[in-house]
Structures are given as C-alpha cells and as structure tokens.
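#data-curation
PF: Archiving a pair of folding outputs for the training set. Convention for this channel: one message per protein, sequence first, structure tokens after, nothing in between. First:
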Amino acid sequence: MNVQQNQRKITPKSNTTETKTNWNVYVNLPGVVKDNVSVELNNDKLLIQANTVEEDQTKNVQYQRSFSLPGTVNPDKIEANLQDGILKVALTKDESLMYREIPLN
C-alpha cells in the first residue's frame, strides 16, 4: 500500500491576537498529544508541526502551519501550551524594540 495514501496533510485553523506586550498564536490541533508537537522559531518565522492518527486508525494526519513574525519577538521569552486540542504560543515582544514616545526638549 502506498504510504501517501495513509497520510493526510492539513493546514490547521488558527487565530492570532496582540496585546501591549505579547503576540499570541492559537492553533487548532484536535487529537494531538504534546509529545507529537513541534514549535520552532527560525529568524522571524514561527513553524508549528504536529502528527496524530485519525480515530479510525487508517490515516496519519500531519498538521503544519507557519507564521511570519515582526522582528520584535524576544526569542528567550516564548511559551507554548497545548490544552484541549488548542496550541497557544505566547511570543513576548522585545521591550528594547517596543514603541515608546520620546519627549521633546
């Protein structure tokens, strides 16, 4: 049997929000467990990949989604959490690059 016939590739639904200090990325990954999720930051690109097996055990499901980010993310302050099939990635903005008003002298 052909391996490709047993695989299904999906671009998962997602949503993004922005606060004063963070960008938050939410990705729908139904049926996926934490050990089968990969979150990577490469320069200004966030890549999310995940794998699971369909309920009827006939096909492997591969999720993949990427996001282009502004260059103001602090790479040392990124958190990811998977709960109830929703992956949340919180990307903290780099404070040194954030907006600030400069007073006139």
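PF: Second:
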Amino acid sequence: MIEVKDLVKQYGDHIAVDHLSFTVQKGQIYGFLGPNGAGKSTTMNIMTGYLGATSGQVLVDGHSIADEPELVKRQIGYLPELPPVYADMTVAEYLSFCMQIKKVPKAEQEAQLARIMQLTGITNMANRLIANLSKGYRQRVGLSQALVGFPQILILDEPTVGLDPEQIIEIRSLIQSLAKEHTIILSSHILSEVQAVCDTILIIHHGRVVAQGTPAQLEQQMSQGQQIQLVVKPEREALSQALCAISGVTAVKPGKAQPGTSAFLVQAAPAAPDLREAIFNTAVQAGCAILELHTEKAGLEQIYLTLIAESQNQEKRVKIPFALRRAAKKQKKAQAKAEKAGAQANALQPDLKAGGEPSETEADVLHQTPAPAAEAEPAAEANPAELEPTAEVELTAEVEPAAKANPAEVEPAAEANPAAEAELTAEANPAEVEPTAEAEPTAEAETTAELEPTAQAETTAQAETGTLAAPEAGAANHTVKKEEAK
C-alpha cells in the first residue's frame, strides 16, 4: 500500500536520509526504530508531503506524493511529535476547524466529530480549553485531528513522548484499537513501545536501513544458536565436562549462581535440535537437582544495540578510505593549479637574451616590479670605448677600498678644502664624522677642476678596473673617493 523507493534527503553536506527503501502492507502497525537523529522524523515529513525529497519516490496506492499531493494527503493523517493544537480553542472548536481545512462535507462533520472523540476518549473534554488539558489529553486531541476524514493511513511521530506510564499504556491501547481499520506507521526510540505495539520493525541509523522484519525474524537473524540456562543443586563443577560431551553443544560457560548451586550457560550450534531434554538427562545422571532450565532469547534491546554497533563500525571503515580519496583529490587539484600557473608564467616570460622588454601586463603577471633607475655615475656618462686603458699607460698601484684608504695619500687635497677632508674621513669611519652634506659645492668643483679632462676620464675608467697610473695616483685616489662618497 505504501512504497518508499530510494529516498534521499540532503541538507548541504549532511545526508539525513540515505537511499531508504521499504514497503508497508495494509493493516500493519509498522515501527520506525532508531536513535535520535537517525532520520525517522525526516522520512515521515517526506511521506506526508510536508518536506520535499532530494531524490526518490513515495507512492501511496500507486500515486506519487510529489506528483499528486492533494490526492495522497487525503489518505494520510499525521501526528507530529508536538501536536499542532491551538491552546485558546476548545476541543470541539479545534476539531471542527480541522474538518473545514480537510474539506469534510458539512453534513458529515457532526457525526464524524462525535465518533472521533469517542474513539480517542475525549468526549467529556469537548467544551474545555485545550490550554487547560494535561499533556496526555493534548496528545489525544492531536491524534483526533489526525483521524479527521478517517484516512486510511496514520503516521504517528513519537506519540508517547513525555507521557507518564499510565498515559503511555492508554495511548498504546488506542493505537492497537485503531489498527483494526487503519494502516499505522509509528516512530519511536523506545524499544519496549515498538516491541509491544508493532507488527513489523524497521531499524534505521544515519538514514540507512540496518534491519527490517518482524520481532521474531529479527531474533532469528541475530541468533547464533540456542543458549540454554541451567541451574542445579548442589554444586557440581565437573558437570560442565558432561555437558560438553552432548552432541550439538559448542561451549559451556559458568553463570552467576547462589551459594550451594551451580549455573551453566550452554551454547548450541545454529543447526542443532532442541537440547533441553539431553541436558536434563545429563544433570539427573550426575545426581543434581535441577532448579532452572530454560532457553534464553536475544531481546529486541540486545538486537538493537548489536545492529547499531555494527552500523557504526561499518561507517568508520567506509569513512577512512573516503577521507584518503578526498585528500588525494585535493592534492591533485593543487598540483594541477600550480602546473597551470607555471606554464602561464613561462609563456609570458620575456626573451631577455634577445633584448626584449616585458610589457606592463607581462610585468604584472610575472609579479615583477621594474627596479628604479639608479643614479647615473660620472663614469656612465663617458663612452666606454674612450675609457679603455691604452697600452702606453703603466699600471703601478692598486686603489685600496674606501674603508681602508690612507689619509696621508689625500693630504694635499685636504689642505685645499677642510670639507673634503671631512668627506674622506667619513669614508674611513662614517660613525665618527658628520654627514658630507656640509661640504661646500664650490670646494668640490675646485678640487675636481684641478684634474685635466683626460686624466679624469682615465682615472674613472681605471677606478672601475681597480687600478691607477703611477704619476697621478694621489689625485685620482682623491677623486675616486669623492665619487664614492656621493
């Protein structure tokens, strides 16, 4: 009657429902069981049309909730976790309002109202304000609005949440009575409630189906063979060896026993027949009085915990390879991006060997800022061809670095101008002498003018090669040091 096919609901990167599929037959009480956040309420909201699915289908009698929403919604009554009641209305007013919304014919409203209140046991509360009702009665009013129009399907989300034990029993009885005429889908994380009410159980975890079937089928699925509890009197520790000799017994474990007794847990093979008779005869032959002998079955609680634990372990195994694949993918993208940037830079690189100049766009792409033009030195003004040393010039002395200059070599120039002496001293030790900016330009000009133009050019060229001619070494040394001070 209800078919859910490959249902998916995704919020960004979070998947609330992950390819969920199941079928609900007519007349069943179908239970959704799972921890908080498993996707139970999201699935129910999609089935009722309150929420759209990312992908997948919900079919009711062959009609899609997405394609024919109004037709499907007429067949569904929905009770959310928090009943949608109006506290300032009386019970009768609220149910009449719901009938108008669901387009129940006016001729049928009065009779239907009386029948619904009788089914849910709120007839004597018809004229009371909903604000004055207890939580149990509010839950009954919410269930009554789900019954308006007598839909074939009832979807109940946590119908007993927040109720006391007596109210829980009342709601359970009400649900079982409604199952005679309706197909009911019930969600809960209370194991005892699902086991007591539901015909078929669907256990979901993180939006995926973990197990599905009747309680008996789930017990059989989780069963690993019979487990038989035996308690005898008096103490007989040696009885365990006799029990192990029984055909079909795989293990015998000691159990909890009172003083003067012995307890054993006998594990049988999955295909073994009922071993209780053989165990009884073995204990009697050992001279023991049997106090307790029964078969232990895995309860729904144990089945649920085992299945959830297995699901979590499987998710861990899946997440690790996924994380590795995702990291490798990111690394590959980063490498491709770096290679692309390198290729682009190589394509825009100017051919400097051929004398090419990069354009402004190319300079920006290459992240290169053109260096500021250096101040032209006096030597740069001269033609390099004219500054080449001739064969007639004899190199007799090397010019020492400015930091190692000998003040004695420049004494004549220093006498001519004290400011020049300060400049030369600053070359030797800048920390001890004031800045050379105090030197007079006139004295500089006079000192420079003492050299002939030809000697000045030769001196400049020789300073670049680190040598001076012997006849004019003293004067040239003075000129070179002045140019470096500038």
